[in-house]
Write a structure and sequence with these properties.
With about 120 residues, this protein is mainly alpha-helical. It has four helices and four strands. The strands form two sheets. Strands 1-2 form a two-stranded antiparallel ribbon. Strands 3-4 form a two-stranded antiparallel ribbon. It is elongated. The termini are far apart.
């Protein structure tokens, strides 16, 4: 168990507020009928089951940081959008959309050079 960093707390808060189906701004956690305890977390450990299974996979960097012991895993910035992502194998971009954008940009450069 380790203490959460400020960035991890902010990422958890933004995920809960934006994507958690069980969270309401006025009521808090709807199934528990109290304030969402994920917003007040300071240490790694037990997480809300819905958050762990449905919301946390939306941010793979945070998921890897919370599920591994010790230091956070190595991340690399995406050359197109700048978002950090977990490199695995020869992967260069964070998503297919960024990969497609980079390929289109490269194709435009080839065509400009070809046309003179």
């Amino acid at each position: 168990m380790r203490e959460l960093t400020r960035e991890e707390k902010a990422a958890i808060r933004s995920l809960v507020v934006k994507w958690c189906a069980n969270y309401d701004r006025e009521m808090g956690c709807l199934p528990l009928d109290c304030e969402c305890y994920m917003l007040g977390k300071c240490w790694t450990g037990a997480y809300c089951r819905y958050f762990r299974e449905a919301v946390l996979p939306l941010n793979p960097v945070l998921e890897a940081a919370l599920n591994t012991e010790g230091p956070a895993p190595e991340t690399r910035p995406c050359p197109v959008c700048g978002r950090p992502f977990l490199p695995d194998g020869r992967r260069r971009y964070c998503s297919r959309a960024c990969s497609k954008a980079a390929r289109q940009k490269k194709q435009r450069g080839y065509m400009r050079k070809y046309r003179g």
